[in-house]
Amino acid sequence: MTAHLIAVFVGGGLGASSRFLMSIWITDLFAGRHALPVGTMFCNVTGSFIIGVGAAFAVGSSFEHHPLFRHLILIGFLGGYTTFSSFSLETITLLQNGKSIAAAITAIGTVSLCLIGVTLGSGFGSFLRNQIG
Asked: Where is Na(+) bound in this sequence (predicted)?
């Protein structure tokens, strides 16, 4: 139990730090172009893709039943990296600031792209698992 808690703690810290840096970088990259929270959207979509890859890759492999992999990467890192609470706050803030179209694009775009990300990631993870054996 202690090892699993440490794995979640370490993974979560690394994921949150990665999200912070990636979000700043992506936001700066698109600065001034629109009102959408592109940094948060990017982290949610890439995190969804990565969890799809990890979950599909683990099936039938030695990682499938290795709880430290699941706790460190899937729960810890990706739990810290993806930002559903930030997404929710930013969407509500857009609505409160009268930017209903940007809020709708953010909400629909994020959910749709995250579902696509998990689907593509899962396919890629299955492909990798089949190639590696």
From this structure: 79, 82
CB 45 within 8 A of CB 83: no
The Cα 76–Cα 88 span in angstroms is 20
Handedness of CA 27, 123, 15, 106 (dihedral sign): positive
- CB count in 10 Å sphere of residue 5: 11
User: Cα(43)–Cα(34) distance, rounded to whole angstroms?
Assistant: 17
Q: What tokens appear for 32 in the block?
A: 């001034």
| Three-state secondary-structure class, residue 17 | helix
How far, in whole angstroms, is CA 40 from its chain's centroid?
9
The reply, when asked if residue 79 is annotated as ligand binding, is: yes
Q: Is 82 labelled as part of a ligand binding site?
A: yes
Mean pLDDT of the chain: 90
Q: Give the mean pLDDT of 44-73.
A: 85
